[in-house]
C-alpha cells in the first residue's frame, strides 16, 4: 500500500510540476524524435531494450510532442468551432461540427493522400509478375535479352515491394497521428464544455454520457482517419485495374467487375446500417455507464439496502439490449469479412469461366496477372472501402452526439474586475428585496440554497436585479474534495503562505488532524473524499473557502456535518474570528448561532417572510419565534453583536479547540491509502485466451468453430491447384463450399466473441457488487468506469474484429505455404527461418508493446476520475474561478495518456517496418531462386510461387501484426478478468436461514466486538460490549472519528467484525448478508437517489401498493412535492436525484425506511441537512412509525437524541458511557454533560429539561406496567 501511495504521490507531483516546468524526455531531446522515427535509431530501439529487461513505467515514456499537446490542439479546434457557431447563427442554421473539423485538419489530412500511391505500386506489381511469368512460358536459354529483361522485372518487383513498405509506414503513421490529434482536441472541448454547463443543461446530460463521449465516441476519429482516403482510392484503383484486366483478358474481365459493382452498393448499405446501429448502441452505452456511475457512487447504500439484485437486473437488461445491437453490427462485420475472403474466389471463377466459354485458352501468365490484379482490388474494394464506409457512418453518429453536447446551454459568467475601492465596500444587492453587507443566517433548508445559487450565478433569475460587488468564495452544503493531497484541496491553486495556512488550519479545527495523519497535510484524499470522515470533509471544504482571499463568503450550512463542540469552535474561531472583517452569508440550521448575526433573513417556500436583527425578529411576532427556544434567563442582547459573541464563547474557547481534536486520531488512523492501479506483467497466457473464449461458448461450440475452420487452409490449395490444372468445374464446387464455410465460420466466431464480451461484463459487474466496500475507498471511480467503458468497448467491437481477422488470416497463410511447398518444396528452406525470425521479432515486440498498451489503459483512468470529480464540484470550481486550472490539469492527464498512445503508435510502426523489410527480402530471394531452378519448373509453378511470395508480403506480416495487435487488445480482457475475480464478501444467502418472522423483538447484542475495514487496517471499534433492548431508542454521539458510523458498518457487516453480534439471539456472522441487511433499515448520512422514477427509488422490488407509497410520502411531508411533479410517482429523477435538495433526499430515505417496516432502524445523521422544524416533524414520524422498533440514532444535534431511552457516547472507537440521558447529565464528569455545556446556557437548560421529562415519563410507564402486572 505504501508503494501504491508513493506512486500516486509521484504522479500527482509530476502532473503539478508539468503545469509549470517543462519535463525532459527520458532518453533524448524531443526534437530528435521526428527524423529518426522510422529507422528506429536513437530512441525507439532503446525503449525495446528496456522493455525486454523490466516492466515499463510512466517515467520511461517520452514527453508529448508540442504539436500533440492537448491544450494547443483543443484551443485550435475550439476557435474553428466558435467561428462555425457564429456563422451558423448569422445564417440561421444549425452549426456543423464536421465543418469545423474539416477546416482545422482537412488540408494536412488531404496532403497525406500522397502516400496513397502505395495503391499504384500494388497495381504495378502484378504487371511485373506477368512479364516475368511470360519469360518462363517462352523460356529460351540462348535469349540473353529476354533474361536481362526478366532480371529487370524481378528487380521491379523487389523495388516496388520496398517502395510499398516505406510509403505504407509513412501513411499509417501520419493518418493515425491525425486521428489522435482530432480525438485529443475533441476531448479538450468536451471537458471545457462540461465546466461551462448550466444547471438546466446538466439535467439534460449525465456523467455516463460524458464518460462515453470521452471513452468511445472520440475513438471513432482514430478509426475513420485510417480508412477515409480509401473512399476515393478504391474507385480510382478499380478503374486502373479494369483497364489492365481488359488489356490482359479482354471483355471477360467485365464478369468479375460486375461482382465488384454488386458488392460496393451492398457494402454502402451495410455502412448505413452500421451508423444506425451505432446510434442506438451509443444511447444504451450512455445509460449503462450512467447506471454504473451511480452504482459505484452509492455502493454503500446499495449494500445496506441489499439492492444488489435489482441493480444487477437493471444493468443486465440495458446490457442485453446493447449486446443485441452490437451482435447485429458484428454479423454485418462478419458478412463484410466473408465477402473479402470469398470475393477473390468468386471473381476469379466467374471471370475465367466466361473467358473459357468465349473460346479463349488459359495461360499461366494471364491467370496470375488477373488473379494478382483481382487480389489488389479485392483488398481495396472489399475490405478497406467497406471499412471506410462503416467508420464514416459511425463517426457521423459520434460527431452528431458530440455536437449536441457542445450545443447545450452554458452558464453566463460576466468577467467583472473590481477596483480596490469596490472590494472594500463589498456587498450583494438584490433589487427591491435586500442589500447585505454583513453576515446573514438563513434558517430554512431549501430556499436559502437557491438564494446562494442565484448569487453564484448558477440559478438564472427572470425578474429583478442581482448585483454582486466583490469576489465570491463558496463552501458547499455537501462537502466536495477532489483526489489529491489535503494541502492541494485547501490551497486550491493559491500560493502557500505558511503563517496564513497555519492560521486557517487552526481556525477550521484541522491542525491536530494534520499532526496525527501519517503524511500530515500531504496525505492523499481518495475519490469522493472516501478517505475522510464526513466531519473532516466539511472542515477541509470550509478551509478551502477561508484560505481564499475573497471579498464575500457564501457558507452553505458548513456546521451540519460536525458535532456541537467542533461546530462551536468553527463558528467562533473561523466564521466570527478569522473572517470577522469580511461579509459572510451563512446558511445554518444551528439556531443557537442566530443571535450573533448582524441580519437574519427568514425564507419560507421561496419567499422572504422576515428580515432584521435577532432582537427585532424576536419582538416582531413573526413565525420565526416558534423556531427558537427562548430563555428568559439568557443575557440581554445588545447592539454590539460581536461583543455578545465574544462573551458567550470565551469561556469555551480553549476547551473547544483542544477537545474537538481529542478523538480525531481514530478517524485519521482509518484513512485508506489510494492504491496504484494494478498492471499485470509478462505474457498473455493461454489460460486467459481460454477464459475469454469459454466465456462465450461451451467446449462443443468451440470444437465446432475449429471444425468449420479446418477447410480454410485447403481451400487455397485446392483452388490454386485447380487453376494451374485448368479445371473450372472443380473450382466452381470449391468456390461454393468456400463461401458457405466462410459465412458459417465468420458468423459463429463473431457470435461466440460478442457473447464472451457480454458474459465477462456481467461477471465483472457481479464481482464489483460482491466485493467489500473498502475496494471502492481505495480505487477512484474513474478507474472503475474505465474498465466498464474503454475496456468493455474494446471487447465489444475491436477485439472480435481483430480476433476473427487473425484466425482467418493465419489459416489462409497455412494454405499459402502448403500450396507453395507442394509445387516447390525448396521454398520451405527460406520459409522456416523466416517464420522463426517473425516469431522472435513478435516476441521481442510484445515484451514492450504489452506494457505500453497496459500503460495506455491505466493512464486513461485519471482522465475519467478528473472528469467525475469536476462534475461533482462544478459549483465550487466556478465559484473559485478555477476552470482554467482544472482544464490545465485535464490537459496534463490527456498529455500523459497521449504519451503512452503515441508510444504504442510508433512501436507498432517499428514492428511493421521490420516485418515489411523481411518480407521484401524474402520476395527478392524467391525471385532469384526461380532463376536458379528455372530449368526444372513450369511457368505456372513459377507464377504460383512468385505470386504467393508477393502475397506473403502483405498477408504473412499482416497476420503477425494482427496476432500482436490481438495480444495487445487482450490486455483489456486481462483487466476485465482481473475485476471479475475480486475478493468477495460473505455470501448473500447461506444454508442457515433465520426464521421468516425474524427479528420479532429487535434485541441487539454486541459481545466484545472489534472492527476494522480491512485485515491490515487499524481497529476503529475496540472491545464494544453493549446490549440494545427491544423497542429501545438509543442515541449515539461522539466527536468526528469516534466510530459512530463504524458501529453501523459493523452491524451491517460492510466488513467482517471480530467478536459476536446477535440479533434476537441469532449470530449475524452465520447468516447470509441479504438475510441480515434486508431485516434492518438505515437512513444514511449521505442520502442517495438513483436515476429512475420516484416509484423505483422508493420500491425497487415492487413490493408495495400505490397507497403504501403515497402514505409513506405523506408521513415524511413529501406528498405535495411529488404531486407537483409532471408525472407524479412516475417522474424520472435527474442523475443522483440532483433536482431534489439534500434535505428532500433525506426524506426520501426516511420514506424507504417506513416502507420496509423492519424491527431495527439505524439513523445516521439523517437530519443534519434539514431545518429544526422539519427535524422535529421527522422525529415525530420516527417516534410514531417506529414505536415498536429498536432505533439507533447517530446525531450531532443533541436535541435530536436527548429524548432517547439511553445514550451511547463513543470516543476513539470505545464506549465512554452508556446510560439514560438524565442520569448522564446529572454527572458533571460525564462526557455528555461537558458536550451539552458547550451549547450555551439556554440550550443546555432546555436539553436537561427534555432529558428529565423523558426520565419521568419512563418511570411512570414502568410503574404503570408493574401495577398492571
TrEMBL record:
Coiled-coil segments: none
InterPro entries: AAA+_ATPase (IPR003593), ABC1_TM_dom (IPR011527), ABC1_TM_sf (IPR036640), ABC_transporter-like_ATP-bd (IPR003439), ABC_transporter-like_CS (IPR017871), ABC_transporter_C-like (IPR050173), ABCC4_TMD1 (IPR030240), P-loop_NTPase (IPR027417)
Classification via PROSITE patterns: ABC_TM1F, ABC_TRANSPORTER_1, ABC_TRANSPORTER_2
Keyword tags: ATP-binding, Cell membrane, Lipid transport, Membrane, Nucleotide-binding, Repeat, Translocase, Transmembrane, Transmembrane helix, Transport
Domain ABC transmembrane type-1 positions: 123-377, 733-968
Cofactor: Mg(2+)
Chief place of localization: membrane
GO CC annotations on file: apical plasma membrane; basolateral plasma membrane
Its membrane topology: Multi-pass membrane protein
Enzyme class, spelled out: translocase
Annotated TM spans: 109-130, 150-173, 230-249, 255-274, 335-358, 364-385, 692-714, 734-754, 816-841
Pfam family, any one: ABC_tran
Gene Ontology biological-process entries: lipid transport
CDD domains: ABC_6TM_MRP4_D1_like, ABCC_MRP_domain1, ABCC_MRP_domain2
Reaction catalyzed: 3',5'-cyclic AMP(in) + ATP + H2O = 3',5'-cyclic AMP(out) + ADP + phosphate + H(+); tauroursodeoxycholate(in) + glutathione(in) + ATP + H2O = tauroursodeoxycholate(out) + glutathione(out) + ADP + phosphate + H(+); ATP + H2O + xenobioticSide 1 = ADP + phosphate + xenobioticSide 2; cholate(in) + glutathione(in) + ATP + H2O = cholate(out) + glutathione(out) + ADP + phosphate + H(+)
EC number: 7.6.2.2, 7.6.2.3
Localization: Apical cell membrane; Basolateral cell membrane
Quaternary context: Interacts (via PDZ-binding motif) with SNX27 (via PDZ domain); this interaction accelerates MRP4 internalization.
PANTHER family, sorted: ATP-BINDING CASSETTE SUB-FAMILY C, ATP-BINDING CASSETTE SUB-FAMILY C MEMBER 4
Protein name per the record: Multidrug resistance-associated protein 4
Source species taxonomy: Eukaryota, Metazoa, Chordata, Craniata, Vertebrata
Amino acid at each position: 500500500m505504501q508503494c501504491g501511495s508513493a506512486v500516486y504521490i509521484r504522479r500527482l507531483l509530476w502532473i503539478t510540476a508539468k503545469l509549470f516546468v517543462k519535463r525532459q524526455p527520458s532518453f533524448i531531446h524531443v526534437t530528435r524524435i521526428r527524423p529518426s522515427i522510422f529507422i528506429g535509431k536513437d530512441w525507439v530501439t532503446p525503449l525495446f531494450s528496456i522493455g525486454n529487461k523490466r516492466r515499463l513505467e510512466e517515467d520511461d515514456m517520452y514527453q508529448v510532442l508540442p504539436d500533440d499537446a492537448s491544450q494547443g490542439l483543443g484551443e485550435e479546434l475550439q476557435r474553428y468551432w466558435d467561428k462555425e457557431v457564429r456563422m451558423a447563427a448569422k445564417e440561421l442554421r444549425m452549426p456543423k461540427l464536421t465543418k469545423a473539423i474539416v477546416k482545422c485538419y482537412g488540408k494536412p489530412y488531404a496532403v497525406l493522400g500522397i502516400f496513397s500511391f502505395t495503391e499504384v505500386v500494388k497495381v504495378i506489381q502484378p504487371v511485373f509478375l506477368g512479364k516475368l511469368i511470360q519469360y518462363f512460358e517462352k523460356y529460351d536459354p540462348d535469349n540473353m535479352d529476354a533474361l536481362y529483361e526478366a532480371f529487370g522485372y524481378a528487380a521491379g518487383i523487389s523495388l516496388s515491394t520496398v517502395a510499398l513498405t516505406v510509403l505504407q509506414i509513412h501513411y499509417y503513421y501520419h493518418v493515425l497521428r491525425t486521428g489522435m490529434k482530432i480525438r485529443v482536441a475533441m476531448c479538450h472541448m468536451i471537458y471545457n464544455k462540461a465546466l461551462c454547463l448550466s444547471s438546466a443543461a446538466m439535467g439534460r446530460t449525465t456523467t455516463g454520457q460524458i464518460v462515453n463521449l470521452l471513452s468511445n465516441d472520440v475513438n471513432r476519429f482514430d478509426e475513420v482517419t485510417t480508412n477515409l482516403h480509401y473512399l476515393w482510392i478504391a474507385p480510382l484503383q478499380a478503374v486502373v485495374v479494369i483497364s489492365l484486366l481488359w488489356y490482359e483478358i479482354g471483355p471477360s474481365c467485365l464478369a468479375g467487375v460486375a461482382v465488384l459493382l454488386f458488392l460496393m452498393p451492398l457494402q454502402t448499405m451495410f455502412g448505413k446500417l452500421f451508423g444506425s446501429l451505432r446510434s442506438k448502441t451509443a444511447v444504451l452505452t450512455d445509460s449503462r455507464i450512467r447506471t454504473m456511475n451511480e452504482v459505484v457512487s452509492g455502493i454503500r447504500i446499495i449494500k445496506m439496502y441489499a439492492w444488489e439484485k435489482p441493480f444487477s437486473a437493471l444493468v443486465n437488461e440495458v446490457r442485453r439490449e446493447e449486446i443485441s445491437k452490437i451482435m447485429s453490427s458484428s454479423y454485418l462485420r462478419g458478412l463484410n469479412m466473408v465477402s473479402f475472403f470469398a470475393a477473390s474466389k468468386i471473381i476469379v471463377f466467374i471471370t475465367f469461366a466466361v473467358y473459357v466459354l468465349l473460346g479463349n485458352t488459359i495461360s499461366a501468365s494471364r491467370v496470375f496477372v488477373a488473379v494478382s490484379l483481382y487480389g489488389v482490388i479485392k483488398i481495396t474494394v472489399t475490405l478497406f472501402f467497406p471499412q471506410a464506409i462503416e467508420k464514416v457512418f459511425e463517426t457521423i453518429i459520434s460527431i452528431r452526439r458530440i455536437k449536441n453536447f457542445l450545443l447545450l446551454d452554458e452558464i453566463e459568467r460576466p468577467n467583472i474586475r473590481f477596483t480596490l475601492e469596490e472590494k472594500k465596500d463589498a456587498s450583494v444587492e438584490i433589487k427591491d428585496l435586500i442589500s447585505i453587507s454583513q453576515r446573514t443566517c438563513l434558517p430554512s433548508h431549501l430556499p436559502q440554497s437557491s438564494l446562494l445559487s442565484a448569487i453564484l450565478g448558477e440559478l438564472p433569475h427572470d425578474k429583478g436585479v442581482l448585483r454582486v460587488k466583490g469576489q465570491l468564495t463558496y463552501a458547499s452544503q455537501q462537502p466536495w474534495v477532489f483526489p489529491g493531497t489535503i494541502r492541494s484541496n485547501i490551497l486550491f491553486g493559491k500560493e502557500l503562505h505558511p503563517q496564513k495556512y497555519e492560521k486557517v488550519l487552526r481556525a477550521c479545527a484541522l491542525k491536530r488532524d494534520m499532526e496525527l495523519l501519517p503524511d500530515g497535510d500531504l496525505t492523499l484524499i481518495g475519490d469522493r473524499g472516501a478517505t475522510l470522515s464526513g466531519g473532516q470533509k466539511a472542515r477541509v471544504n470550509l478551509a478551502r473557502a477561508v484560505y481564499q482571499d475573497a471579498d464575500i463568503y457564501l457558507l452553505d450550512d458548513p456546521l451540519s456535518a460536525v458535532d456541537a463542540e467542533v461546530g462551536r469552535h468553527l463558528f467562533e474561531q473561523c466564521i466570527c474570528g478569522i473572517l470577522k472583517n469580511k461579509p459572510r452569508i451563512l446558511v445554518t440550521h444551528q439556531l443557537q448561532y442566530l443571535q450573533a448575526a448582524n441580519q437574519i433573513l427568514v425564507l419560507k417556500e421561496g419567499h422572504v417572510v422576515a428580515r432584521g436583527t435577532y432582537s427585532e425578529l424576536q419582538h416582531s411576532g413573526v413565525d420565526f419565534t416558534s423556531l427558537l427556544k427562548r430563555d428568559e434567563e439568557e443575557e440581554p442582547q445588545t447592539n454590539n453583536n460581536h461583543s455578545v459573541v465574544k462573551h458567550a464563547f470565551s469561556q469555551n474557547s480553549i476547551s473547544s479547540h483542544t477537545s474537538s481534536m481529542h478523538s480525531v486520531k481514530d478517524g485519521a488512523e482509518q484513512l485508506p491509502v489510494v492504491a496504484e492501479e494494478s498492471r499485470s506483467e509478462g505474457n498473455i497466457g493461454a489460460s486467459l485466451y481460454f477464459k475469454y473464449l469459454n466465456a462465450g461458448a461451451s467446449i462443443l461450440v468451440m470444437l465446432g468453430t475449429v471444425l468449420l475452420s479446418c477447410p480454410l487452409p485447403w481451400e487455397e490449395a485446392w483452388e490454386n491447384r485447380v487453376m494451374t490444372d485448368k479445371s473450372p468445374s472443380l473450382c466452381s464446387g470449391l468456390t461454393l463450399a468456400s463461401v458457405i464455410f466462410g459465412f458459417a465460420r465468420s458468423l459463429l466466431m463473431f457470435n461466440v466473441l460478442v457473447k464472451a464480451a457480454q458474459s465477462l461484463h456481467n461477471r465483472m459487474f457481479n464481482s464489483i457488487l460482491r466485493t467489500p466496500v473498502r475496494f471502492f475507498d481505495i480505487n477512484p471511480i474513474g478507474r472503475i468506469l474505465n474498465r466498464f467503458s474503454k475496456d468493455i468497448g474494446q471487447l465489444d467491437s475491436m477485439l472480435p474484429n481483430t480476433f476473427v481477422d487473425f484466425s482467418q488470416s493465419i489459416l489462409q497463410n497455412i494454405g499459402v505455404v502448403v500450396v507453395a511447398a507442394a509445387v516447390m518444396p525448396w521454398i520451405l528452406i527460406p520459409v522456416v527461418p523466416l517464420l522463426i525470425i517473425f516469431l522472435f521479432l513478435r516476441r521481442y515486440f510484445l515484451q514492450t508493446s504489452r506494457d505500453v498498451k497496459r500503460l495506455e489503459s491505466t493512464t486513461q483512468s485519471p482522465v475519467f476520475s478528473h472528469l467525475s470529480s469536476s462534475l461533482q464540484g462544478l459549483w465550487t470550481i466556478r465559484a473559485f474561478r478555477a476552470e482554467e486550472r482544472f482544464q490545465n490539469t485535464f490537459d496534463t492527464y490527456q498529455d500523459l495518456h497521449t504519451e503512452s498512445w503515441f508510444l504504442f503508435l510508433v512501436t507498432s510502426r517499428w514492428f511493421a517496418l521490420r516485418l515489411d523489410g523481411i518480407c521484401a527480402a524474402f520476395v527478392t530471394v524467391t525471385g532469384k531462386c526461380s532463376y536458379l531452378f528455372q530449368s526444372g519448373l513450369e511457368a505456372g509453378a513459377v507464377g504460383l510461387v512468385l505470386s504467393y511470395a508477393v502475397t506473403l508480403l502483405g498477408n504473412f506480416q499482416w497476420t503477425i501484426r494482427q496476432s500482436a495487435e490481438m495480444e495487445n487488445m487482450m490486455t483489456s480482457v486481462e483487466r476485465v478478468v482481473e475485476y471479475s475475480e475480486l475478493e468477495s464478501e460473505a455470501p448473500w444467502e447461506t444454508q442457515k436461514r433465520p426464521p421468516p418472522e425474524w427479528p420479532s423483538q429487535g434485541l441487539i447484542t454486541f459481545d466484545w466486538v472489534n472492527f476494522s475495514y480491512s485485515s491490515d487496517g487499524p481497529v476503529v471499534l475496540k472491545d464494544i460490549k453493549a446490549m440494545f433492548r427491544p423497542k429501545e431508542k438509543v442515541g449515539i454521539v461522539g466527536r468526528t472519528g469516534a466510530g459512530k458510523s463504524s458501529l453501523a458498518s459493523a452491524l451491517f457487516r460492510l466488513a467482517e467484525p471480530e467478536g459476536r453480534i446477535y440479533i434476537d439471539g441469532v449470530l449475524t456472522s452465520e447468516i447470509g448478508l441479504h438475510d441480515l441487511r434486508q431485516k434492518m433499515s438505515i437512513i444514511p448520512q449521505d442520502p442517495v437517489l438513483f436515476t429512475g422514477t420516484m416509484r423505483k427509488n422508493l420500491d425497487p422490488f415492487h413490493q408495495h401498493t400505490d397507497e403504501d407509497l403515497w402514505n409513506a410520502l405523506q408521513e415524511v411531508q413529501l406528498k405535495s412535492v411529488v404531486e407537483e411533479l409532471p408525472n407524479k410517482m412516475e417522474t424520472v429523477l435527474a442523475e443522483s436525484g440532483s433536482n431534489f435538495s439534500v434535505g428532500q433526499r433525506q426524506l426520501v430515505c426516511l420514506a424507504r425506511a417506513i416502507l420496509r417496516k423492519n424491527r431495527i432502524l439505524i439513523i445516521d445523521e439523517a437530519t443534519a441537512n434539514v431545518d429544526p422544524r422539519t427535524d422535529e416533524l421527522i422525529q415525530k414520524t420516527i417516534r410514531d412509525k417506529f414505536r415498536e422498533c429498536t432505533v439507533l440514532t447517530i446525531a450531532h444535534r443533541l436535541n435530536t437524541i436527548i429524548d432517547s431511552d439511553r445514550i451511547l457516547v463513543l470516543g476513539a472507537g470505545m464506549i465512554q458511557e452508556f446510560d439514560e440521558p438524565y442520569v448522564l447529565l446529572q454527572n458533571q464528569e460525564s462526557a455528555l454533560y461537558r458536550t451539552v455545556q458547550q451549547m450555551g446556557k439556554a440550550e443546555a437548560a432546555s436539553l436537561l429539561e427534555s432529558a428529565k421529562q423523558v426520565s419521568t415519563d419512563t418511570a411512570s410507564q414502568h410503574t404503570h406496567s408493574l401495577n398492571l402486572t
